[in-house]
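Me: I keep going back and forth on a fold encoding question. No explanation is needed for now; the record alone will do.

Assistant:
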Amino acid sequence: MTKLLIVTDTYLPKIDGIMRFLMEVVPRIQDSFDVTLLVPDFHNHWEGYNEVKVSVSRVISLSGYAPMKISFSNVRKIRNAVKEADIVFIQGPALISYLALLYGRKFGKKVVHFIHLIMWELYAKNLPRLLRWSNRLLRRMTISRWYNLCDLLLVPYKSLVAELVMLGVTAPTKVVRLGVDTSTFVPTDKAAVKQKLGIDPQKLVIGYVGRISKEKNVVVLLDAFQRVIHEFNAVLLIVGSGIDMKKFQNIDRVIIPGFQHDVIPYYQAMDIFVMPSLTETTSLATLEAMSCGVPVITTRVGFLRDYVRKDYNGLTFPRGNTYTLVLQLRKLLGDAAMRVKLGENARQTALSFSWEHTAQKIKEILSNLDQ
């Protein structure tokens, strides 16, 4: 059986977009491959899978993630894991993935990179202001030195292919859309769910689920909420954790349950979901909210530009534009019928996304790659 090494720079107990992808796809392809996971050691274990764990730094954090600790022991683990594999399947975008890519080239392995993040955008939002001049160099290095070393790039939406080509990427690409579990992320009785979560059923809930970090720009949502707070009987529900959490604490009518393993009831309690991110590819959180029948307000980034359709299943606003977000919030908060219509259409949009299809396509691609 083909030995598949899946490499990621994030891992349990964090449940972000990359981890959600792995949790949905890996069980669906494990019957066709001998799977090993090369992962950072965040002191958690995925039952039933072979793991090679790399120790992480205790003092450095990038967007809430501890990077790999630079040591001979870690490098040796990565080298040996890659040497034993037939295919190296990289999730990126940090040091574990980069070293796995370099060793993959050294040992003549097939290397596939799934692009979950726009790396140069992510780093640009997290670099100290004095170092942001280096982002142009970083972008050039990312393209020429990393992506073009791969045998195949998998991207979650078609327009990203054209963007990569314009930036100089020559590696072969295939489009594999991500999915959403529409059988578990479902609409339900909002009032009952709100009550169960300790939220007044009479209040409208504006919500966000995800990391609280610079690139997610959740502060613009907080700013917009504070500008409409006196006009509507509403609360702001922020589900997640991250380096910017302190900015949201002890603020009137802001509810912060923190990181939650089961986010479904929180989506179901929302009347409006907002994704204010500065950079996204697919945004699984937005798809999950839509699957729960929640109308969305998002920035026009990544695949969101294609599947969030204005006045059909959601509304949009320019990145960082608090004024327009306020207008869109007022529009939905003041129109119950519009929230229902957009929510129903959001659910229909989500039904066109399938993890089963995602996994089947990846299985076919990896199987053909090894032939």
Notes: The first strand starts at residue 3 and ends at 7. Residues 18 and 328 are 29 Å apart (CA to CA). The chain is about 40% helix and 15% strand.
